[in-house]
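User: Hey, quick favor. My workstation is busy. Could you predict this chain's structure for me?
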Amino acid sequence: MKNTKRLEWLFIGVIVAVIVGVCYRVLFNAGWMAFMFSVMSISFLLGIPLVMGFITVYYAERNRLYGLGFAITGPWISIMALFFITILVSLEGWACWLMALPIFMIMSSIGGLWAHHIRKKKHNNRLQLSLVVLIPFIISPVEHFIGASTTNYKAYTEITINASKEHIWNNVTRVRAINEKQDSASFTRFLGFPRPIKAELDTNAVGGRRKAIFDKGLVFDEHVTAYQPYKLMQFTISANPYAIPSTTMDKHIVVGGEYFDVLNGTYELERINDNTYKLHLYSNFKLHTTFNFYADIWAGLIMKDIQQNILKVIKQRSESE
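Assistant: No problem, here it is.
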């Protein structure tokens, strides 16, 4: 009987936590509340899972303490339930959720430990629960007043190729159609990002126009700003977020959007010996959020995965020619 009662309160805790989480998600995404709330904010990224973790354990331990293990992992039940519900009803995209999940789980555990401490001390009044639920509402206006910061970052990749500089450079300037078997970008494909198709260049010189074409309608317009044959090609990168189909990328991570943009890219060919070269590819991108410290981790992984994929294609084609 006692075990049944404990499971009932755990179920109640999860249900209440998920309802609160969904309400926060809807409110923080409401256009009429954009002046104060945003999904792309510290108050949402840290505050919502903290509250959900607190609620889960606060209710689950109503009659009896579970212990530290449950206080840490119990809130993950609520987080995973929110994960599936918001994806199921298209409130959130798979890629965004996957990137937010690690910090959601950490913060929910902190909330769970906080509630466990209160239950352990037998401070069971509802005032504390109410104050915890208000945390995101307290943090968000302050965060919006401070504002988001724009920070530039660099994603650097390289690969060694055993081929002539002519073969390598021909594959650098123009990338022929890439089939699915040649696409090794497992990480970005797992996230559902568009797959690279090909790259076209109208002239090998400064001022040349280059198009990097991906599937799902994603196209980058590139303008060559520096060019040294068989040595260096630098280009600006621009994408029109309004021309990208809404089904291609989540609006929170769309290239050229409010939060993320790629600025430029550079290929450099370094000679090792007569038939061995090191090809460097790096890009500069910018983030505009209040949590660039966390967004940079994921943006860097995504950019490096895309770049390393292109380098592998160039290597395979150069060495086989």
